[in-house]
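Standup notes
- DV: blocked on the single-chain target, sequence here:
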Amino acid sequence: MMVVRVIVVLVIAVLAVFLGSLIATDAGYVVIGLRGWEIETTVWAAIAALLLVAGVGYLSFKLAHSLLFQNSKIADWFATKRSSNSQRQTIQAIEEETNGNTVEAIRLLVAAASQSPSPVLHYLRASELASQIGADEKASELRRHAARLGDPKLHVFQRFEEARELLGQKDKRQGLRELRRLLEQHPRCAPALRVLVQHCHEVEDFVGALEYLDVLSRLSYISDEEIDELKKTSWIGRIRQADPLAIAKVWHGVPRKLKYERDLLLAYVDALCEKGDTEKAISELERSLSRRWESRCAHTYGLLQGNAEKQLKVAEGWLAEHSDDALLHLTVGRLNRRLSRNEIARTCVEQSVSLGGGMAAALELAELHFESGATQQAKEALASVKQDLANR
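- DV (later): unblocked, structure below
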């Protein structure tokens, strides 16, 4: 900026010297005649007079403008007029956006901003629309306008949007660096935290996602339900990635209210089974189902190969409270089948099918029929499975 000022001063000095030499060499003259009046003067004096008249006219205009706006009624009228124009253009912009004319909507929003008492909102919305159509340079320009006019916090928003644009490129590393640098300076920048959580999920960095979510959960940016859903996804990822010897430690870190979430619990059960600790998986399901009932968890319980006699006793206890649960009837049927009580098993599975147990119940029933030699009934059960598949 200092260099530009020096250059401007030098240019003015050179022009002054040049004009001075011209005046000294030949001042020239101008003759102005009007209704018998005649004025003769030098060219330079005429130019100076014109500049003086222009300056006086400009100052007079500014003075009149200032005096007009000192009158509150006149000022209010102008403000109302400008606000009305801005509102009209904003409505037109919404209509154009609805009709898919995004470029025209942006133009109208910018025009509305020039007459609005709150131009920042118009510039921000226009920048969002520009980003949507891929006009990133225009979007950046509009955000800079908003940042100059608005709260200093808008500078943070501008940096976030620029980083998000970089994330849209093939190489995301620059965008990630900018987001992390932004968080170092503004650790409570919720939009940046949310984007980084999403990125961590994409690259399966679930430890990093939970760290960002810990900060994000203390801000009123997204709902508690969404926070819980993001945390659940992160903990499921951590459990699936965990070393078999560290599964218990990871599970210990899961917040209490999430431990009874179905998908998270089933991920933990799967991890325990892969580790070979089926009895622990069974006890976790029993403890969870005693506090919060989940049909899918009850279904999984019947698939675990533990002490069938003990499992059946527990499942029959649940059946007394959840007699209309189709998957629980299927579980009881499977446990009876493992104990070679096929008649009881078939009755339970038939009940599951009648309650809407789906393909799993129909396949189980078909197997029971084949084992008992009822081939025709088995074929009918398989036909219903094929019909279900065809209807999907």
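- Follow-up: The longest strand covers residues 30-34.
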